[in-house]
Structure formats: structure tokens, C-alpha cells
Design brief:
- The complex is a heterodimer.
- Chain A contains eleven helices and no strands.
- By secondary structure, chain A is mostly helical.
- Chain A has two domains: 164 residues, no CATH class; 77 residues, no CATH class.
- Chain A starts with 14 loop residues before the first helix and ends with a helix.
- By secondary structure, chain B is of the alpha/beta class.
- Chain B folds into two domains: 236 residues, P-loop containing nucleotide triphosphate hydrolases (Rossmann fold); 35 residues, no CATH class.
- Chain B has ten helices and ten strands.
- A six-stranded mixed beta sheet of chain B has the order 6-7-8-3-9-10, sandwiched between helices. In chain B, strands 2-1-4-5 form a four-stranded antiparallel beta sheet, covered by helices on one side.
- Classes of the chains: A mainly alpha, B alpha/beta.
- Chains A and B meet through α7, α8 and α10 of A and α2 and α3 of B.
Chain lengths: 262, 274
């Protein structure tokens, strides 16, 4: 892994790092609601200012926060164009084949891109300031109502967090398998979309096999280190500090402002 | 510390004649450094997994630090007493932060939260990786990864350390790092059982155990076992380079007094005989 995928945890001691993980996740959810319901320019300004403040508070490198958005630039361009061209068939500037670019579409496109961008930055802030096992604890706390349904919450939380851990490893593995197949004459560089899709298929089987093998070994290692499915872990007490309350109130207030005032 | 008697294990049940372990008998004393050598499929890994109660007992008896491995109620005590490190360092980490990964075992065994940072610091110091607390294990070198994995087990303070081919996936530099760590742990009094198929690694041991077809073929101090061409041939292993050199020299008419196990010893012997 030569480049760290962003969103990965960056150790630190900032206020954001020290917030209780499950409060952080809850705050993110509130902010997501706020982002999705925003429709006025002041709403976006407010959220953008908030994001800027959070980035400053987190003491993260700008690169860590924004590089995943940069990597998705073509995706942003695509959703922008699609919204412009297809959103509203009424009152288009020009009408050509199936394309109907319009002012309403342009407006919608700006909205969508801004929202997705804000969501991405906020989620990045969460994952960059929360250590993986702290995230497991957060899931554990937030999912705990499901215990009433007799769902193994602790195990689900562990599975989620371990699965996230192994995403970069699996990508690496896919890359290695792809190179091995290329060496044996497989072609991944074809320009034709159908051929490209067909070439990806033979990758699936070895990747799945490797993933199962890894899972097997990891579960053995976890067991050897005393992991008990069902008990242990998650029992970690999470002390709430005043800043957790403050963060929650702030996010809730912001969400309310977006919903009812702006 | 470890008493295995007539251990028998077969991965396929009923009807399968092939036994991975077939009357495996071995005892390891407290503070001893034992290297178990054998080919792939000789049963050495299966034995290691038994030490940590990771496989169900099928036949024979095994006690670890006086606890019966077949007894389910001892399970967690056994795993706490006997720490185990695996071959592939990548598949042992549960967190992408060293510090958190080390805390995993401690939390599982219910070590008080206040004590955890101290234990982590101590474990990292023991493996010579202080200052790596906040790093991501996935971005370290193979040798460093494996030392972090060892630290993760050491933090729990087990009495016995079982290392299952921990150097098999490492480059020579990484192997040296890990071996010197293991040796230091041994000097500090830990009981160590190291599984390996690199014969050179056995030179460091107090005792070498040769395993073949699921049973112990021979055991003794390295100077005895590693120079015994008959035993080596029987288990299908090549002798260490220095031992080979000794026999080659002997065939060519140069008789050394001692069969050397390390390069330094070989050089010394050669100088003296001249």
C-alpha cells in the first residue's frame, strides 16, 4: 500500500479525536439530516462554515480531508451533468435528442453536488478522527437497542469494523491477482466495455477464496487472543464529558435550524 | 509446562486413515526454548494449535501449565497462559492502529482499563518497537509487523509463547529481527515453543524436536540433532550449511574436531585445524 486511502484514521489529540465515538457518529447522523434537508444558500453557507471549523479543530491535513473528494471528481462531474441534462423536461434551454438542459436542472445539479461533497467531507472527518476499534464501540452502543430483538450486537459491530479494516488489504490482493493474470496473458486494458467487464470476472473467484482464507486465519488469531464472541469487548465503559454533550447540542440545534428556519 | 502424551488428530473424521498427529509425545519444561522442526504436513502446526485449545482433542492427553486442554472450563485460562503468534502477520491485526491492536487481547481478558497503556508500553519496549503506538501495522515491514504481533501476545503476559512459523513469510532482515526478539524473550525467562521449517533457526534452541508424519522422531540439544545426518535424512531435511561443510570436508580428508553449527564456529574450527 503505497498511498493511504483517505478516511483512514489519523492519530491525534484534537477535540474531535477525543469526543466519545458514539456521540460522534450520532452527531454525524444529525448533520447528514441537516445536509440533506438544506435548500437555501444560507443553509449551505452555515454547513460549509461548520465543516471549516471542524477541519480546523481536527488539526488534520487538508489533504486527508479532501483527497477522497478529489478522487471522486469524475463522479461529481457526472452527477452534475446528468442533473443538468435530465432533471427537468419542462422549459429547457435547448432540446436535443434526450437531453433537456434547463435552469431548474442546473440548480438541482448544484444542490446535489454540494450535498454529496459535504456528506463526504463530514464522513471523512469522522473516520479520520476515530480509531477503528473505537468505531466498533460506537456501533456497539448505537446498535444496542437491537439487543431487544436478540441480535448479536457485539458481534455485528466487530464484523463491521474488521470488514472495514480489510478493504485496503483486499484491494492490494486484487491488484496482485490482476498482475498475476496479466502476466499469464489476461487483458485488462481493452477499451471495449464488454471486454473489460468480462476480464474482471475471473478476478472474483480468487479474491473471494483469498478473503475466506484470511477470514479463517484472522478468526483463529482472534480466538487465540481471547476474543469471545458474545461477551467481552464492548463492555468498555465510555465516559461522557461536557464536550460530548456540547457537540450533540450544537449538531441538534444546527439540524433544527435547517429543518425549521432555513 | 506443556505435557503432550500420545496426541492423535485427524482433520477428516471417521474412515480417514491419515492422521496429522499420530502418537505425538513431548514435554516442555518451564523456561525452555524448544524448536520443533519438520516438513510441511508433518503435524507441527496442528500440535501448536492444540497448545492453545484451538482444535478439539481427539485422542491422547495434553496439559498446559497443569491445565487439561480437553477441559472446556479451562479454555480462557489456557489461552491466557499460552500466547500464540501465527505465520501471516497481515491476518492477525484487528485494528489499523498498533496501540489499539495491542489493547485487543488485554480487553478480551478483562485487564483494567487504567493498566492497559502501561502494559502496551512495556510490551512494545520488549520487542524493541517503542514509539510505534500510533502507527498502522499494515504500513510496517514484515519483521516489524511480526514483532507487533508478538507484542500483542506479550502484553497479556503469558507464561508460554508458541510461535507458529513466524518467520516463514519474512525476508532475511525481518527474520533476524524476529529471531533476536525471540532470543531476548527466552533470556528473560519465557518458555518458548517455536515451530519452524528453517533448520538454521533451530541452532538457537535449548532443545530441537524433529517431527515427521505426526510423531516425534528425535529430540535433543541442537549440537546433537542437527549434526545427525541419519535423523535429518529420515525426516527429509537438509543439514545446516556448516554441518554439510563439516561432512564434505571430512569426505575430502579434512577432519575437524567439532561439528560446527554457526558460521563463526566453522571459521574458528578451520583456523584452529590449520
Amino acid at each position: 500500500m503505497s498511498v493511504l486511502p483517505t478516511g483512514l484514521y489519523q492519530p491525534g489529540q484534537s477535540v474531535l479525536h477525543r469526543l466519545c465515538p458514539w456521540v460522534k457518529v450520532l452527531c454525524l447522523l444529525l448533520l447528514l439530516v441537516a445536509v440533506v434537508t438544506t435548500s437555501t444558500i444560507w443553509g449551505y453557507v452555515l454547513l460549509a462554515v461548520l465543516c471549516a471549523c471542524l477541519i480546523v479543530l481536527s488539526k488534520l491535513q487538508l489533504q486527508d480531508v479532501f483527497s477522497s473528494a478529489w478522487r471522486l471528481r469524475w463522479f461529481f462531474a457526472l452527477i452534475f451533468l446528468m442533473n443538468v441534462c435530465f432533471f427537468s423536461p419542462d422549459d429547457p434551454w435547448v432540446e436535443w435528442w434526450i437531453f433537456t438542459p434547463s435552469y431548474a436542472g442546473l440548480l438541482q445539479a448544484v444542490h446535489v453536488v454540494l450535498r454529496v461533497f459535504l456528506l463526504l467531507v463530514m464522513s471523512n472527518l469522522l473516520t479520520a478522527t476515530t480509531a477503528p476499534l473505537a468505531m466498533t464501540d460506537a456501533f456497539h452502543v448505537l446498535l444496542s437497542p437491537l439487543k431487544l430483538l436478540r441480535l448479536p450486537v457485539g458481534q455485528i459491530a466487530m464484523i463491521l469494523s474488521v470488514a472495514m479494516q480489510f478493504i485496503p488489504t483486499l484491494f492490494e490482493e486484487a491488484d496482485a491477482i490482476q498482475k498475476a493474470q496479466t502476466a499469464r496473458g489476461a487483458r485488462f486494458d481493452s477499451r471495449k466495455l464488454t471486454e473489460k467487464a468480462a476480464a474482471v470476472l475471473p478476478l472474483a473467484v480468487p479474491i473471494f477464496l483469498a478473503a475466506f482464507k484470511r477470514a479463517d486465519e484472522l478468526s483463529l488469531a482472534m480466538e487465540a487472543r481471547g476474543y469471545r464472541a458474545g461477551s467481552g469487548m464492548g463492555g468498555r465503559s465510555q465516559h461522557l464529558a461536557w464536550r460530548d454533550g456540547a457537540a450533540f447540542v450544537l449538531c441538534a440545534a444546527l439540524c433544527a435550524v435547517q429543518l425549521f428556519i432555513l | 509446562m506443556i505435557q503432550a502424551k500420545d496426541l492423535t488428530y485427524s482433520y477428516r473424521f471417521e474412515g480417514s486413515k491419515y492422521k496429522t498427529l499420530d502418537g505425538f509425545t513431548l514435554s516442555v519444561r518451564s523456561g525452555e526454548f524448544v524448536v520443533i522442526l519438520g516438513h510441511n504436513g508433518s503435524g507441527k502446526t496442528t500440535f501448536a494449535r492444540h497448545c492453545n485449545a484451538l482444535l478439539p482433542m481427539q485422542g491422547g492427553s495434553l496439559t498446559v501449565s497443569g491445565m487439561d486442554v480437553g477441559n472446556k472450563s479451562c479454555l480462557w485460562d489456557i489461552r491466557r497462559t499460552c500466547g500464540m503468534v501465527f505465520q501471516n502477520p497481515d491476518n492477525q491485526f484487528v485494528s489499523s492502529v498498533v496501540e489499539e491492536d495491542l489493547a485487543f487481547g488485554l480487553r478480551n481478558f478483562g485487564v483494567p482499563e487504567a493498566e492497559i497503556p502501561l502494559r502496551i508500553e512495556k510490551a512494545l519496549e520488549t520487542v524493541g518497537m517503542s514509539g510505534f503506538e500510533k502507527r498502522s501495522p499494515h504500513l510496517l515491514s514484515g519483521g516489524q509487523k511480526q514483532r507487533i504481533a508478538i507484542a500483542g501476545v506479550l502484553a497479556v503476559e503469558p507464561e508460554i509463547l508458541v510461535l507458529d512459523e513466524v518467520t516463514a513469510m519474512l525476508d532475511p532482515q525481518g527474520r533476524r529481527e524476529v529471531l533476536s526478539t525471540v532470543q531476548r524473550l527466552h533470556e528473560e525467562g519465557k518458555t518458548i515453543v517455536m515451530i519452524s521449517h528453517y533448520i538454521e533457526e533451530a541452532v538457537l534452541a535449548d532443545r530441537v524436536v524433529m517431527v515427521h508424519d505426526g510423531r516425534v522422531v528425535d529430540e535433543g540439544p541442537p549440537a546433537e540433532i542437527l549434526t545427525d545426518m541419519d535423523v535429518l535424512r529420515r525426516v527429509g531435511m537438509l543439514p545446516p550449511v556448516t554441518v554439510q561443510a563439516y561432512y564434505d570436508l571430512k569426505a575430502a580428508g579434512v577432519k575437524l574436531d567439532l561439528c560446527p553449527l554457526t558460521m563463526e564456529a566453522l571459521v574458528e574450527e578451520l583456523c584452529r585445524s590449520h
